[in-house]
Amino acid sequence: MSDTVVSLLTPPGTGAIATVEVRGARAWELARQLFTPAGNPLPAIPEVNRFWFGTLGSDEVILAVLAADAVEIHCHGGRRVVQWVIDQFLVAGGVETSASGGRKPPESSITSAPIPAPAPTLMATSTVREGIASLGGLTPPARLPSTPSTLPTSSRLGGLTPPARLLQHAPTLRTASILLDQLNGAFANEVRRILALLGADPVEALDPLYRLAELGNTVGRHLVEPWKVVVAGPPNVGKSSLINALAGFQRAVVSDVAGTTRDAVSVQTAFDGWPVELIDTAGIRDAQGLEAEGIDHAKRALAHADLVVWVMDASSPTQVWPDEDTVAAVRVTKTRWVLVMNKCDQSVGWAPNDPPGGIHLSATTGANLQQLTDSIVCRLVPDPPSPGSPIPFTPHLIERVGSAHAALVASRPDEAAYMLREALAESEQHHFASPLGLSS
Ligand SMILES: Nc1nc2c(ncn2[C@@H]2O[C@H](COP(=O)(O)OP(=O)(O)OP(=O)(O)O)[C@@H](O)[C@H]2O)c(=O)[nH]1
Ligand SMILES: [Mg+2]
């Protein structure tokens, strides 16, 4: 019998989400053996183009059926998690292959003892668990047509359908589940509803269209791209220490010599399942030479920030506020700020409400870090969408919905309807199989 081949489709190394493909005569049998769906049991015969949420060992994953003899596992991208997922299929009888096609002997030829599940990594706890928690009560996903012929062959790149490729780029399971909802028709159904409202009474369409445009601008833009959170402030206040504490590991260089950080170093993480890029910057002050260059970098990073965490030093008797130049460097007035008083473990007696709204914390002891992450999430996603909410999920759809809203506000309902119809047609190209994404 020919081999059932297990391949890692995403690049090796740590990523947010990884995709493991299992292809061969036993692919479905192995998937049924190892994967536990969140809802009903898996059917005996694979249904092509269906997706399931569930678990593999103790990890939450998405199982996608590509063909009768091919499945994909979308799992958290931490190295150990990915290796563990691959190992499960190898122990069960699969054969590993590298992207270049070279095959490795299965680990199972060495030992068939079950491999213990890996301890969750920082990303696993902050993205997978929270992502799944955010899904709330899962309902079994919509049934999709069981024939692959509805997808043109030319759109299947590298064995992945376009929706699967979109999903693969989602940095967290929370964003993957939002994309999954859209690819199953949440966005399209809402656009149809708004179009019907527009036809009946355009005023009734204003609120839902505003909400859709707003969700596009807040959440839709960050289903694949993380929010950029820039940590800035004067030298030596603990910016790099704070990044390391938030990311949970040593990434930025910390030193008691002021002016240590020269480059804008960045770390990807997730808060409450939302993808965030934390960007460390050089301490801002008047400086010359290499340090001045670092400060220029810092100002460039500020220009692209979605949110700025301005750090001050509670162990110092003076607070250093952003100067006019720094404020001017920040891109748009919409960019939000969070004020932090670090080193509260060595505070020289600052009152808790000084500065007003400032969060007193310690990067060293970890005190009040959660308050900071809550505050960041609250500012980035003030009104989080509930599971199943419609969201424009590509930059182009966001633009179209925004234009439709602007047109309606300007009392041009026909133009708004035109934009929405365009968006609808575009979004349906992303659906898994049929315009509704549903089968009878
Ligand atoms: N007591 C105390 N010390 C801290 C805390 N956070 C940082 N430090 C110390 O403050 C010093 C400066 O920390 P860094 O993280 O390098 O500060 P920075 O703001 O990145 O400095 P530059 O890159 O030079 O601008 C180091 O000696 C840290 O150990 C804290 O919460 N409490
Ligand atoms: Mg630093």
Describe the structure.
With about 450 residues, the chain is an alpha/beta fold. The protein folds into three domains: about 5-165 and about 170-175, Probable tRNA modification gtpase trme, domain 1 (Gyrase A, domain 2, 2-Layer Sandwich), CATH 3.30.1360.120; about 185-220 and about 385-430, no CATH class; about 225-380, Rossmann fold, CATH 3.40.50.300. It contains 13 helices and 14 strands. The strands form two sheets. The chain has an eight-stranded mixed sheet, sandwiched between helices. The chain has a six-stranded mixed sheet with strand order 10-11-9-12-13-14, sandwiched between helices. Bound molecules: guanosine-5'-triphosphate and magnesium ion. Guanosine-5'-triphosphate binds near residues 239, 282, 343, 346 and 364.
How is the secondary structure organized here?
Blueprint: E1 5-8, E2 17-23, H1 27-34, E3 35-37, E4 51-56, E5 59-67, E6 70-76, H2 79-91, E7 95-97, E8 103-104, H3 122-135, H4 162-168, H5 173-183, H6 186-200, H7 202-218, E9 227-232, H8 239-247, E10 266-271, E11 274-280, H9 289-303, E12 307-313, H10 324-329, E13 336-342, E14 359-360, H11 369-380, H12 395-409, H13 413-428
Parallel strand pairs: 1-7, 9-11, 9-12, 12-13, 13-14
Antiparallel strand pairs: 1-2, 2-6, 3-4, 4-5, 5-6, 7-8, 10-11
Helix pairs in contact: 3-5, 4-5, 6-7, 6-13, 7-12, 12-13
The structure holds guanosine-5'-triphosphate (GTP) and magnesium ion (MG).
